[in-house]
Amino acid sequence: MEFTVAQVAAMLGGEVKGDGSAKIKMLSKIQDAKPGQIAFLSNPKYEQYIYTTQASAVIVKKDFVARKEVTSTLILVDDPYSSFTALLEEYHKLISFQKSGIEQPSFIGDNSTTGKNIYRGAFSYIGTNVKIGDNVKIHPQAFVGDDVQIGNNTIIHPGVKIYSGTRIGNNCVIHSGTVIGSDGFGFAPQEDGSYKTIPQLGNVIIEDNVTVGGNTVIDCATMFGDATIIREGVKLDNLIQIAHNVEVGKHTVIAAQTGISGSTKIGENCLLAGQVGIAGHLVIANNTSLGAQAGVSKSIKEEGQKLIGYPVFDIKEYFKSYAVFKKLPDLNYRLRELESKVLKHNNAHSSVD
Amino acid sequence: MEFTVAQVAAMLGGEVKGDGSAKIKMLSKIQDAKPGQIAFLSNPKYEQYIYTTQASAVIVKKDFVARKEVTSTLILVDDPYSSFTALLEEYHKLISFQKSGIEQPSFIGDNSTTGKNIYRGAFSYIGTNVKIGDNVKIHPQAFVGDDVQIGNNTIIHPGVKIYSGTRIGNNCVIHSGTVIGSDGFGFAPQEDGSYKTIPQLGNVIIEDNVTVGGNTVIDCATMFGDATIIREGVKLDNLIQIAHNVEVGKHTVIAAQTGISGSTKIGENCLLAGQVGIAGHLVIANNTSLGAQAGVSKSIKEEGQKLIGYPVFDIKEYFKSYAVFKKLPDLNYRLRELESKVLKHNNAHSSVD
Amino acid sequence: MEFTVAQVAAMLGGEVKGDGSAKIKMLSKIQDAKPGQIAFLSNPKYEQYIYTTQASAVIVKKDFVARKEVTSTLILVDDPYSSFTALLEEYHKLISFQKSGIEQPSFIGDNSTTGKNIYRGAFSYIGTNVKIGDNVKIHPQAFVGDDVQIGNNTIIHPGVKIYSGTRIGNNCVIHSGTVIGSDGFGFAPQEDGSYKTIPQLGNVIIEDNVTVGGNTVIDCATMFGDATIIREGVKLDNLIQIAHNVEVGKHTVIAAQTGISGSTKIGENCLLAGQVGIAGHLVIANNTSLGAQAGVSKSIKEEGQKLIGYPVFDIKEYFKSYAVFKKLPDLNYRLRELESKVLKHNNAHSSVD
């Protein structure tokens, strides 16, 4: 990818000051920038760097007045920071979707269809009866099982494994190593102490605009027609466990290494920190915030609480209790002292009374 | 897969009422069923649906008497629920084992043998001197290292990685992304603060009827001739860590994200909840039950205990202590009040005494 | 691999007693050894086995005097244990680096170069502009993205996924399923409750002599030019989460299932036990030791502490507090008793005073 400074300026609705034909390949920080790169200057603290930077272009505020010579081409805009952020997003989109075509060898089963501008990396596997939308990127070594459906603009990173029957919406990103649709953990204890496998025949539904990190696992639902559901806009980090029949509500964010047990329903706009554990068959209210390593063993009915501990309770109360926990040996000592004082006093008293 | 209602009825030892030649492809719930699907009616609460369902067949109790017209073919049995469950299991087995043959490209090294009715998916890799039994399914992108042995009827899902020398028994299921036989975490501290790798030369043995979830890791044992052992019937969930030289006893069940440190021996018929951590070189007695997020730092000698906390103790005692923990600031306050009362009183007393 | 006893003895600087032409293929314990294997005798407790072992050779102390007939060839050395350990290391190195050549099909993009004695397993994928050093082993189904650089003698196990732009040093080992360079977890909340993805454009740098276990995830840094950095000699276990912009200092060891949140900087020579969680934007001092399941929510400034709990404090203090925690119901009871005694006494008093 390569753009002229003039093209970038046009995109940002900015004005070029200097050589508009200079070529831009990459973005960088002003203090690190090299030729072919574009940087920005927003915070006056960094002004010094604009006189020494090797950046081919720098985005600056409209009213910027140079106090020394500037060799970089300038792009004048209203808000350099948000212009740069817009460029970052554009650049990220470009590199995310730049791959296209079909690398060989790759595998696609009978009766499967793919949309326009698809990428199918080498050693990727697509089963039978799969429907894949436009602009989808199936990276190398990814696996897409039979009867899977994937919407438009979704990116499946290298080595993702998607079991049969999974549905994935539009604009999703699934990172490497993640497993979607593996069997729920269901085993019926037998009289001889062994366990019989409960067949897992449901699927996983991932709605639009969902991001899933690396090496996360989302199990399928148990029964035919049931689904483990990840609602629109959910963001899942790495190494998360989502058990069978779980539902994660719209725009809920879950940090790494958290685990949700079977059939639990997480509300909308919740924030779950890392290494949280939630037991099965619970309902967690909307806007619940769970601190790191929290353990939830009962449903949370009131919305908007911030909780922590095992089992969880109010985060401020937890820290107050924990402050006393740290002094427990002292408390214990004081209690014993007091007991002996009271005992001594009472004895003394009873003898004098 | 497609069966006639008559074939299904024969399998269940049931009687057909209606069109026995109707074709069945799938199972469903009575309220959701579509043509080509079979459902069941057991709970009278659902009777209404039998008059509106589109199911091609419904399994009902022998003595079921329709109060309105039923268009579905009926299969009359003693116990519709257990008949349906039997069908689910049969169906699950069928779809689990339906793939066979060798997709190309796939890789198999010298001197490796595979049994009857094998499936080797595209981009699967089998090393040298590997022995694989009958009816084994090696799904796409799975890796089976040199000198590995796998019994009969074992399913290796897409992208599983099995290091050299691993032994896996009969009727096992290993889900996607799981790694078996990676190096144990052994490093000897050196005087300069660096660490020297302790060579990991043992292997992993997985006995019969073991299920392992997705993205779990089972490390090999350290020494030649030693093994990390997963005994018969063990069920491991997703994202579990099993370190070098661990042994997990028969019919023990371990939930997601639990970690067992090196050389620890877990007994038989234990139940470990999610996110449990167990330190190294311990012995955990049979029938031990560990609550979620429990931390075990000492061996557990008495069988049949239910434990929780870090470090663990009796689960009921834990919850009693925790109830007081939540009121610790109040306890602290009351103790201070009492101290000042006693102090005041004693002072008053000593002045009057 | 096969060596004569004489060759092994020469390597160890030992003296052969018996048939120096005997062939050795493997190492074993003296009590388990079979023909073709070499064992050692160091602890006198095991002397009995030297008279019955089938080992083709046994390494013994220089001054060993057999009290019965020994059929194995002996190799006499100063320290049998360390000689055997040296053999183990040599053997481990041999098997780790024995694979070489290019298996087909495998994929390599334009403008990528590999050094001498390389192994590229079947279904491995190397992108464009990749630079790989000498003696590097890219195992089957591994993925190496565009613009990646890998030093010499580094082993990439089956199915590892390395995103574009990652730098990996010399003598590293990356185990199966590990993901390096996936997007950091960065999302900006929007007014409508949804989240906007913050582009993740940095990379991951792994220095020399680093080992990473299986199914670990290391996210890339957020900004261009920034990196998530794993310093020289770091040892990471399985299923670890390393978020964007984290730095792990030289020779730090981290056990399984631990998670480090974004932008946190871990010092040198730290020891983190399993299932530890560390919040974002913290600094952890050198030589810090964190116990299992510890939760760190503030920076740790003093070096060399041993900490545990959530949030962490001194490990000895924690266990003292925890000992009282286990007796909290009793404490609570005693406090109430005391309160009622004092109350009764004061009442009695106030009535008599």
From TrEMBL, chains A, B, C:
Pfam families: Hexapep, Hexapep_2, LpxD
Keyword Cytoplasm: no
Catalytic-site annotation from UniProt: H244
Functional pathway: Bacterial outer membrane biogenesis; LPS lipid A biosynthesis
PROSITE patterns attached to this UniProt entry: HEXAPEP_TRANSFERASES
GO cellular component, one term: membrane
Enzyme class name: transferase
Gene3D superfamilies in the cross-refs: Hexapeptide repeat proteins, MurE/MurF, N-terminal domain
Residue ranges annotated for the UDP-3-O-[3-hydroxymyristoyl] glucosamine N-acyltransferase non-repeat region domain, each copy included: 23-89
The keyword Phosphoprotein belongs to this UniProt entry's keyword annotation: no
Example GO BP: lipid A biosynthetic process
Highest taxon listed in the record's lineage: Bacteria
Molecular function terms, GO-annotated: N-acyltransferase activity; UDP-3-O-[(3R)-3-hydroxyacyl]-glucosamine N-acyltransferase activity
Keywords, ordered alphabetically: Acyltransferase, Lipid A biosynthesis, Lipid biosynthesis, Lipid metabolism, Repeat, Transferase
Transmembrane feature ranges: none
Catalytic activities: a UDP-3-O-[(3R)-3-hydroxyacyl]-alpha-D-glucosamine + a (3R)-hydroxyacyl-[ACP] = a UDP-2-N,3-O-bis[(3R)-3-hydroxyacyl]-alpha-D-glucosamine + holo-[ACP] + H(+)
UniProt-listed Enzyme Commission number(s): 2.3.1.191
Protein purpose: Catalyzes the N-acylation of UDP-3-O-acylglucosamine using 3-hydroxyacyl-ACP as the acyl donor. Is involved in the biosynthesis of lipid A, a phosphorylated glycolipid that anchors the lipopolysaccharide to the outer membrane of the cell.
Family statement drawn from the similarity comment of this UniProt entry: Belongs to the transferase hexapeptide repeat family. LpxD subfamily.
Subunit structure, interactors included: Homotrimer.
Protein's name in the database: UDP-3-O-acylglucosamine N-acyltransferase
Organism annotation: Pseudochryseolinea flava
Lineage, top ranks: Bacteria, Pseudomonadati, Bacteroidota, Cytophagia, Cytophagales
Gene: lpxD
